[in-house]
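Running low. Invent one:
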Amino acid sequence: MKLFLKGDRCFKDKCAIERRNYPPGQHGRRRSKLLGYGIQLREKQKVKRIYGLLEGQFRLAFARANSRKGITGANLLEELERRLDNVVYSLGFAASRAQARQLVRHGHFHVNGRRVNIPSYQVRPNDVVTIAPGSSAETVVRDATDLTASVAPWLQADHDNLTGKILKWPEREEIDTPVQESLIVELYSK
């Protein structure tokens, strides 16, 4: 499945899925049918790759989502969407989530006027995300904003001033990640 992890490259002819839509190796063309556990594991791996998480980070996110009231799968996606690196990507300040993670890690963004360099920082409603004053990454961020057509409905972006505001918590209907979160919940409930 095409996960759009490489930014612009996924929209061009050089995308690996467009050139070769089968796994690498000698036995890659032979497909076996996935059943039960395999389908659930693939769904979990897909979410981990989309958001760029390691297994431990994903388990902690699932544990936090499971301890909250409500539907665990929707809570999990909300938890992942509220990460600062994902918010920077969703606001259009980066071409990919990996680039957003690097920009946050290098301290190019402020939340409510304070420098935050932790990609897993959980944003809250009414938080304001801005680029650091005098940041060397301003040209990179401006180039990325040119690629962005729209912003998620739970966010508000000002691409001229390079600021963004979190309006409310994201809801499942507003998250456009192509994931069946119920399979992940089933996997962890075993």
